Amino acid sequence: MIPSSSTSAGASHGAGAPAPTALVKDGAFVGQLMASLSIPVFVLDTQARVMIWNHACEQLTGVPAQEVIGTSEHWRSFYEHRRPTLADLVLQNRSEDVRRILPRSASDISPTSLCIESWFDMPRAGRRRYLAADASPIFGADGEIAAVVETLRDLTDEKMAQVALEQLATRDGLTGLANRRCFDDTLHAEWSRALRQQQPLSLLMVDVDNFKAYNDANGHLGGDECLKRIARAVSSEMRANDLVARYGGEEFAVILPNQSLKGAAIVAERIRCRVEQLQLPSTAPTRHVTVSIGAATAIAGPENTASQLVATADAALYRAKHMGRNRISLPLSEAA
């Protein structure tokens, strides 16, 4: 029998609770072995009650063994709201539900066991952690499931390092905005989605007016600070699903999914005003740093492409520059 007491195996199972099912010939030894493991481990019986909650699991979750042994409240250690753990899903023969319950997890499903990597709330520990979890059944002599063991590994540091590397690959080092590579990838993804859903896709090309003169007057550090402040101003006007990217040099690009040209023009004007209100001193006739913006909108279809959308917005930007800067411009067919 796996022991039902000790630091790892916990306190009693509660009044009237049956003793744990015999798993192996020397269950006491197995219990002691799991208790001594440096890897967090917990074991559920066939009624989804905790049989073992080892010391490493206590340290990871912040939950003492005596609080969960004999109960089915182990989920509280990992989630804010009730949901099954991997061990529960194995017990309930619901392996396929893991992708519904944890849709953003990386999962591996076999006929008898589950393996996932995902973020967990960890409410008692007071911090979200990225864990690798494995759950496998333990079979009794009759061939039926006698218990399920779940092991955990804390991969938070590795995940954060991976996220940092991904950000380096997709983020502009100066402004923190998406870089050109990320812009290109996102534009094509949004174009494909607009094509599927027959929704408009709008694009703004934003260029800082007379930036070379500003850079010459204020030096590279002053120019960098100018770009960072403008990047923040542009970002402040965005919805959650919009994307602002540093397109190159002093030029920014804004992807506005499911936005009409009229809506895009309103956003562009807000951006123009927001930058003007920064009142960054300039030697240009306007006395303050300003931006020119070209806007374009397309309904994705086989007759046009994302590249054409960029070209149309670029042409509108060129007209805004030619017409005197510090203004927005729409495609000629729309502006007429």
Automatic annotation (TrEMBL):
Superkingdom to which the source organism belongs: Bacteria
Parts forming coiled coils: none
GO cellular component, one term: plasma membrane
One GO process term, biological-process aspect: negative regulation of bacterial-type flagellum-dependent cell motility
Database matches in Pfam families: GGDEF, PAS
EC supergroup of this enzyme: transferase
Catalytic reaction annotation: 2 GTP = 3',3'-c-di-GMP + 2 diphosphate
Segments forming domain GGDEF: 199-333
EC number: 2.7.7.65
CDD domains, alphabetized: GGDEF (cd01949), PAS (cd00130)
Domain PAS, first and last residues per copy: 26-105
Any one GO molecular-function label of the UniProt entry: diguanylate cyclase activity
Residues of the PAC domain: 114-167
NCBIfam families: GGDEF, sensory_box
Protein name: diguanylate cyclase
UniProt organism field: Massilia yuzhufengensis
